[in-house]
Amino acid sequence: MFDYSLTKDDKKLYILKHEKIKDGNEDKIAVHYADGSIDIIDDLDDNLDIIEVKKDEQIEEALSLSNRIKKKIKRSIACGMTLSTSVCAGGTILMANMPVDNEAKYIVVAGLGVIYLGSIFYSMKKNKPVEELDKLRFLEENRDDLELYSEYNNSLNGLDNRTRHLIRSRENPYSSLFIEDYDLDTLQTIEDNIERAKYFNYKNKKKR
To answer: Domain residues for 100?
Structure first.
């Protein structure tokens, strides 16, 4: 989960992820917080319940502030792209008005290309939280349908074997504990499959 905390104090209690680890022969859970801290706790259902409740709260708050968060991220991306574009434009103008040989021009062009590509990768990375918010919103709006996946034979069509196994092996596959395991395309595929099944309502053979 990305960091949607609003204050420095929030970061101390904001859970980014948890993972099961081994501490010697004991099963443990490593809990990662937004301020960089990590807690190592016992691998107990009660502890997983605590983490789930906290992440549910974080998701609810993030969705309530999603417009504000998205605007902030988009402004950051726009500033980065504007800066890189300005640098590239300035470099091009400077190069055009300076008596430099071809080799120097190639070096400058290559440098400007690296700057511009870097800005593209920067914007893609910065946009990841927006993509996650879109996924969380989709899950919230379609949870009732998605949780009925086992009632439709073809609901997991189009998913890779690993994702199918993860969904089928979990009592509550769309819990906030597992939300990092699925992207928006996966959830959209399941929802589309279920909607198609509802539309056609194909019949199954009666079991004898």
So the answer is: 66-126
Which structure tokens are listed for 131? 């993509």
3-class secondary-structure state, position 118: helix
Q: Which two tokens stand for residue 84?
A: 């890189």
Q: How confident is the model at residue 194 (pLDDT cuts 50, 70, 90)?
A: very high
SS3 31: strand
In a domain, 2, yes or no: no
CA–CA separation, 1 and 55 (whole Å):
9
Report how many domains make up the chain: 3
CA atoms of 45 and 51, how far apart (whole Å): 10
Q: What is the pTM of this model?
A: 0.76
Asked if residue 46 and residue 103 are part of one domain, the reply reads no
Domain boundary among 95, 126, 157: 126
| 3 state SS of 26 | strand
